[in-house]
# Entry
Amino acid sequence: MKAFLNTVLAIFWKDLLAERRTREILGTMLVFALTVILVFVFAFDLSVDMRSKAAPGVIWVTLCFAGTISLNRSMSLEKDREGFDGLLLAPVDRTAIYFGKALVNWVFMLITAVIVVPVYALFNNINLFSTGFASVILLGTLGYILTGTLLSALSLQLRTRDMLLPVLLFPVVIPLLLSVVRASTILLQGGIQGELSTWLLLLVGYDLLFAAVGLLVFDKIIEE
Amino acid sequence: MVMSYAPIELTMGRVQKVFYFHVAASWTGMLGFLVATVAAIAYLKTGAIKWDTASLAGIEIGMVFIGLGIVSGMIWARPVWNTWWTWDPRLTTTLIMELIYAAYLLLRSGLDDPQRRARLSAVYAIVGFISVPLTFVSIRVFRTIHPVLVGSSDPTVGAFAMTPRMQAAFFSSLAAFTLLFIALYWHRYLLGLKQNEVQQKRMEIESGGEA
Amino acid sequence: MLKAINLTKSFGNRKVLRGFSITVEPGEIVTLIGVNGAGKTTLLRILSGITSAEIGQVQFNNIPSRDDPSFYRRQIGVVLHAPMLYGNLSARENLRFFSRLYQLPHPEERIDELLQMVNLRSRANDMVRVFSRGMQQRLSIARALLHDPACLLLDEPYTGLDQDSSSVFESLILRAVEDKKMVLLATHDLDKACRTSTRIDLLQQGRIAFTQPRFDVSPEELAETYREITGTQPVKHAAGDAG
# Structure
């Protein structure tokens, strides 16, 4: 167990160190996210009232798109000089690689969220601060990257590379997306408590389920 | 059987007969996914390529049937609800399943090495299969609480009780489609196996006929 | 003692290894030669645990690698064609990362020692991204030696090395062997093969077609045998390319 954690953290810190130096992933994610939000605002020309109602949807779609940048890039950096083979050579649990990468992706997505949400709130003069919303963001991004990390390891091996990741990921992530957007809407705009707990339950269920799937199946994805 | 035996339903007239096709087609489409996923697990456990072929056959045939299901669903929806599409849980989930099928096929086209292709498609089939019930449940929850959506969505419109004669037609239609599925699937599967053989022979010839 | 027993591996429908077996004892340098596509790289990847064979097994001291993969991986140090490094980290940071994965007790000392050994001490804090191919290869060797493995698996390690790096490498291998380690390396360089090996095996169509203790053969004789068996010319290695 200790060795497992050690590997997960080693991979996590390595990626963070590389990112701190180049800032290529986070920078791209943030710029992209802000651009997407702008596109939404112009494309839909939302009235002020609608912007508030649309907030959860816009924010989550933006996070998903930005998320794919991290998912794609953090995996492909392993492919660069075959660092991945180096990981396979080491006496570490393969699944630890999965969780290490997932942790990196999660942190990057959270950092993006921490910047994007206040920015959206600022631009549209609405209040988005709520601990409930924050926890939904935590759970939602977690589920997204659990599935995403799995599929990014898969799509990396394709001839078509990361082009296919969104195609593979989005249909499978719909229950998650639906749950977080609904839960976010209820938290930010008020709604029935009962409904909220249903959505949160679905959310947690999704997270647990796909963590389990990842645990079981990651080995098979990277073996040769 | 459907056309002549089942009585003409009270409110919807002849159009209702599409229902038999729609449900049966969707059901067999989902059966295809189930078969594909079971075969995928079998492949991951045994490594025998025939399971990969079985999985692919399931997805391909399933895709055809789901496609039929969606189209027939739309044909039914138009006169009944006055809309081409309705976001009800079953139809929407079916659409998403179709997308997953398509993604699966795209995935396969991006891989050349047969073992790797088999392995990764098997993984994706499993991941996709697990997500479908979740998708259905989440949309169901959504629709139960928020029934007012695009077009008419009153669930009572378009619902009907089945008389015994209708039930007979329904089940025979279901059986017929399932049999059709099995027939098509089996053909596809055998075709796939033959393709594997041809591929193998070709490889052997190319590498100089080494035994 | 490293042993491969009856390894069979196909890619698609092409059989790359057919019932391949090999044994390497401590103190031996076994050199594999053969045409491109003969299966040298596949063999090394299987021995490294990166690729798995369909049939057959790999053993270290009679313990199958499958039974205890962690233990097995600690015994091997691998240098393949790709350097297996991270471009956005420095040489030192790269080695730190890997020493963490191997859970080494005194990483910094070991890292310094190895950087010294491969002549990269002065570039320790530079990004691997800016290293030449030869430098990356040297760092890769350092990475392989971090955990002081009992067995070295090297896939064409001399490719792209300049004269200096090449000799550094050669002396490393010879020293490893003095320490009773095992070395299995694949190369096209018949000169080096004759000079440094204890045994030379010619890999042809997935099997060992010819084996030769080094003492009995000169590079010219070896090249002749190579031509006879494989029907092709051995690849000529130019010194100093891409240093």
Summary: The radius of gyration of chain C is 18 Å. Chain C touches chain B at residues 11-15, 54, 205 (CB under 8 Å). The longest helix of chain C spans residues 163-178.
